[in-house]
Amino acid sequence: MVRTMSLLRALIRTARMIRHTPRLTDGLVPDEAVLLDAPDERLGPALVAAAVGEYDTAAKLLATTRESAEWENRDRYVKRLAAFAQKRDEWLTDWLKSSPRDSDALVVKTELAVRRAWESPARPEQLREIGPLIDAAAQSEPNDPVPWRIALDHARGTHATHTAFESLWEQAIRRSSHHYGCHVAALKYLSAQWYGSHRECFDFAEQAAADALPGSLVQALPVRAAFAQLLGGEARTSVQDDRIDAAADLAVTLSGAYEAADPWPAEVRNLLAYVLVARGRWEESLAQFRLIGPYATSFPWSSVTEDPLGQFLQARDGVRIEVASGTPLRGPGAPPAAARS
Question: Which of 26, 156, 254, 325 has the most other CB atoms within 10 Å of its CB?
Fold first, then answer.
């Protein structure tokens, strides 16, 4: 009898999947249209120019962000330009030769140096050697929080004490009290993986989110803390699971404040989709995949695989199957009775 019931449940699940999975592609872009870490319309031309060895477009872009105090955009662009320079840095070398004290070139150089040091087997030693470079970048533009975000990443890699970290944190928020990149860097330092704990990480994230401006990505910090705890794999209490779900709820609200297929919150939406999948919240995760549109991001998928785009697509397909298999045969999308007779 038990075997018969198990077989029946399996057959019903399969029938639901067959019936509803095709319908659930509505609102999802085709696999071939999904892009990984696609640049926005401002960064794209700078990367294209850098690919042919020209730096003027990147220089103008970063100068604009500095002059208009677009610190969030500046941080994103610095990261992407430095990541590009890890493989092709001729344009950056030429830029620095032309303007060695240019604050925009210096901050990209600093980010690049920190990235390269992080990948070295002698990471702590190499990071300590580039401390003066971070100081120079910070001094070149005193109002810019980006060098201080880099300093926070640097502090994590050099095993800085909590006292030293807090001093850097004060300098960062003095320049931009709600800067998302600086908050993420601080959250990493306070995580259980580094120098804090899951509780400390969550406490920091929840307080920052409560203090954040409406629509600020800082409100997504708790879901980053949730991701860190889920990735840790430790056994959790019901209280901890409730905290993770509350973080996801807050991020769902934040995501809903932005238009679908908006590249600005794409990383937050990718992260939220991951957490919702991990919690088995299939309908909500499918909604996030629809909002993501073509903008897959390496984080968080690269944390669990060397093929982040493949993992994104696999997760999206898996969510569709889970939603379909949980939808009654006569649920949404089922033909009316007259059509079935």
Answer: 254
